[in-house]
Amino acid sequence: MRKTWVFLLFSLTAQAQVSFIPGNLRTAFNRAASVHKPVFIEVYSPTCHVCESFVPVFNKPSVGKFYNDRFVSYRLDINSQEAQGFLAKQGLVVPSLPLFLFYDENVRLLHAQNLNNTEKEVTGTGSKALNPAERASGYKDRFAKGDRAAAFLSAYSLYTRIVRDTVSNIQVMNAYAKSIRPAEYVSAFPLIKKALLDAENQLFTYFITHLEEYRKKNAPADVKQAGESVIMATLYSSRGNQMSSDRISKVASYLLLLGFDRKTMENRSLLPELNALFRERKTLQAITRVDRYLQTTQPGPDEYLYLSNYLPARSSDPLVLRKAAELKARAQKK
């Protein structure tokens, strides 16, 4: 009799919490196809303390019933080969953990979101995934139809990061900057940190010229890291490949304002600036830029060799070929 009660108690407890299916992703999607339910995937890490804070929420009976009635649920360890393969195939980035992913039974992405560990947000996110009018797969259409509510634009910009849609990210973040007042720019720092990819955005223009305001309200290290991330994303993006050499130099100089030294700035901006100079056929300026890099950073043989191969690939100008030969000789002496 006691064993029966223990079994019943275990069964009731299991039913009361979110039931994550064992096996693998194929198991989850096969199950979803058989019961005609969407799939909820929690991308997590066993060593992530934030992920652990979601466990008590998943264990709540109301949350368990909500998810068990509506989804086939699966936990995906981001450190596993399965996770790396799946995320790469889906073209997804994980900005932070845990990441909630929702798919239909045919492995089409419905919704993706990072969220806080509250019952309201956990069930609310699931509700969004079930609603075609609210889920992320419909964001592009909502934006095209003119939705410019700040809350929507914030959610959409974060989603563009997850699905690696840089073009939409730039458009949405430009719209977001226009949807709020300049007085709200400092309070928008979390979005600058998590979603902004373009140093041309007016949010970033304000940010880089009012750094002390952000440092007073946020950890200085976070401010520095956020600014660096936006600058590097800009310099090495497809848009960066179209920027003028003068503009690239200006964007790179923002690293100095953030507290990075000149050596770091020269190193980080070398290739984007050289690409622009060769595109503009400014050969002498390109050689001068290489010389400045060599004087400032004092590179090793690998860097010399790389540049000796890079330069002839960009230009057949005799001056460039002579510089490439010089660099190759110096690489061999190192």
What labels would you give this structure?
single chain; 334 residues; alpha+beta; Glutaredoxin; 19 helices; 4 strands; 64% helix; disordered N terminus; Thioredoxin-like_sf
Structural commentary:
InterPro entries: Thioredoxin-like_sf. This is Thioredoxin-like. Keywords: Signal. Residues 1-16 form the signal peptide. With 334 residues, the chain is an alpha+beta fold. It has a domain at 2-134: 3-Layer(aba) Sandwich (Glutaredoxin), CATH 3.40.30.10. 64% of the residues lie in helices and 7% in strands. The chain has a four-stranded mixed beta sheet with strand order 2-1-3-4, sandwiched between helices. Helix 14 (220-235) runs antiparallel to helix 15 (245-258), helix 16 (262-279) packs antiparallel against helix 17 and helix 18 runs antiparallel to helix 19. The radius of gyration is 25 Å and the shape is elongated. The termini are far apart.
Order of helices and strands: HHEHHHEHEEHHHHHHHHHHHHH
Number of strands: 4
Give a short account of the largest sheet: 4 strands, mixed
Helix-strand category: alpha+beta
CATH architecture of the domain at 2-134: 3-Layer(aba) Sandwich
CATH topology of the domain at 2-134: Glutaredoxin
Termini Cα gap: 81 Å
What is the percent of helical residues? 55-70%
Q: Figure out the total of helices.
A: 19
Shape: elongated
- The spatial strand order of the largest sheet comes to 2-1-3-4
Kindly report the oligomeric state of this protein: single chain
Computed CA radius of gyration, to the nearest angstrom: 25 Å
Strand content: 5-15%
Mean pLDDT: 95
Low-confidence stretches: 1-13
CATH level 4 superfamily of the domain at 2-134: Glutaredoxin
According to CATH, what is the class of the domain at 2-134? Alpha Beta
